[in-house]
From TrEMBL:
Record protein name field: Bulb-type lectin domain-containing protein
SUPFAM superfamilies named in the record: alpha-D-mannose-specific plant lectins
InterPro entries found in the cross-reference section: Bulb-type_lectin_dom, Bulb-type_lectin_dom_sf
UniProt entry keywords in alphabetical sequence: Disulfide bond, Glycoprotein, Signal
SMART domains named in the record: B_lectin
PANTHER family found in the cross-reference section: BULB-TYPE LECTIN DOMAIN-CONTAINING PROTEIN (PTHR32444), G-TYPE LECTIN S-RECEPTOR-LIKE SERINE_THREONINE-PROTEIN KINASE LECRK3 (PTHR32444:SF83)
Gene3D superfamilies, sorted: Bulb-type lectin domain
Cleavable signal peptide: 1-19
PROSITE patterns per record: BULB_LECTIN
Residue ranges annotated for the Bulb-type lectin domain, each copy included: 16-142
Amino acid sequence: MANIILFFLSFALFAPLSCSTFHTLSKGSSLSSEKPEDVLTSPNDVFSAGFYSVGENAFCFAIWFSNSRTIVWMANRDQPVNGKRSKLSLLKNGNLILTDAGRFTIWTTNTFSLSLVQLSLYNTGNLVLSNMEGVILWQSFDFPTDTLLPEQQLTKNTKLVSSRSQTNYSSGFYQFFFDNDNILRLIF
Ligand SMILES: *[C@@H]1O[C@H](CO)[C@@H](O)[C@H](O)[C@H]1NC(C)=O
């Protein structure tokens, strides 16, 4: 009997640790382009964030619908990183950076915080860097790629840029934004 209890106890203790997906990234930790299991998922499992293959040995840090793998956001669409030794890291100073093959910083949120911060993927598909008081330092919803999700706003500071093609996620030729005269424009 004691053995059985011990068995279930150890299962309860270790099952969450062996689970490959997680919801938040904390200070000092990173996601690696070399580990396909290094993916953040929203608590409702609808969205995933991680390194997405866009070509031979070329990866973009992206958010996608978990079941269809349809991309909704990309950090570095015009500068894919190497599949080896590339990382998304939440530094101790509160900055989130994407490094290519361990050397170059390709993309950064330019954030700074001495208090605890964490990166979370919300159920809405918003990737949010916030501190323990809930203050948002950076969020992907403020920097759309070519897609708006429900609850995501298009403002005077944001614009949508189409992809090159259905298979190439680089910036394409169509832009959708509020012009200076407050008119919503779709331009080529
Ligand atoms: C996507 O298109 C851009 C611009 O033409 C090009 O530089 C890039 O190599 C293409 N990427 C892929 C994966 O084909």
